[in-house]
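Hi R.,

Here's the input for the nicotinamide-adenine-dinucleotide complex you asked about:
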Amino acid sequence: MRDIIKAIASDIKTSKHVVIFTGAGISVESGIPAYRGEKGLWNKYDPNIYANITYFLQDPSYYWNFFREVRYPMLKKVKPNKAHLALAELETVGNLKTVITQNIDGLHQDAGSSSVIELHGTTRTIYCLNCSQEYSMDEVFSMLEAQIPPLCSECKGKLRPAVVFFGESLNSQILRLAFEEAENCDFLLAVGSSLVVHPAADIPRMAKQRGAFLAIINIEKTPLDTTADYVINDEAGKILPQIVQSLKDD
Ligand code: NAD
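And here is the predicted structure with nicotinamide-adenine-dinucleotide in place:
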């Protein structure tokens, strides 16, 4: 294990444009469950009801009850973990240019990462479908005391979170930026992602096809393991600080 960590650190050191690609697994150690798997959120909450755009537009009350009971209390108490903090440090000790994340929790920004592409949006912003007025999670949580679903205080329009629901396309401009990073990087490190959700999972694949080194840190195996240069099946919060330390020691 030490050898592979040293090898990854050494390749990061000589790389000019390092990109990180993260998934739900990086936030598990902060207390946010991944969606899939035994302890996944979707085992408890049906994504066809709680995360589907058609269902949300028909009856938003399910989502807002879920937001009030589950999502908001969880996001209010979570903090970046050692993995998020190590990636923020990689901006100063390695040539980390961008973090591309599938997560909607905002923990990379809380940890101090300065360039984050959020492929699936963010739960931290909520906006009006009619007039685009934006609200914070706190503001909307207070509104939920009075009524569910909440309505825009400007125009009484329906509110929605700035996340990509199932049944919606990813924002094309954000996706283009992410693929540009995949084309331009010479090292891509994928962390805590099952690499099965597309088109997001095509980003590390493209980086590898364009000649970048590809490293994967994930507890479970992924479909890209056989094409990656390095694979570590272990916890992100344990491995990433060791990679950063190895870079500092060099
Ligand atoms: P996923 O649930 O499909 O895969 C997560 C992977 O992380 C799994 O393979 C698991 O083995 C691994 N993992 C779990 N704990 C880990 C740890 N401590 N260290 C390293 N690996 C660990 O998630 P994904 O690939 O991000 O895919 C999909 C979707 O999940 C995205 O659409 C994303 O928006 C959404 N999501 C986001 C959040 C969040 O914002 N925190 C939470 C759940 C799901």
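One thing worth noting: The first strand starts at residue 18 and ends at 22.

Cheers,
M.
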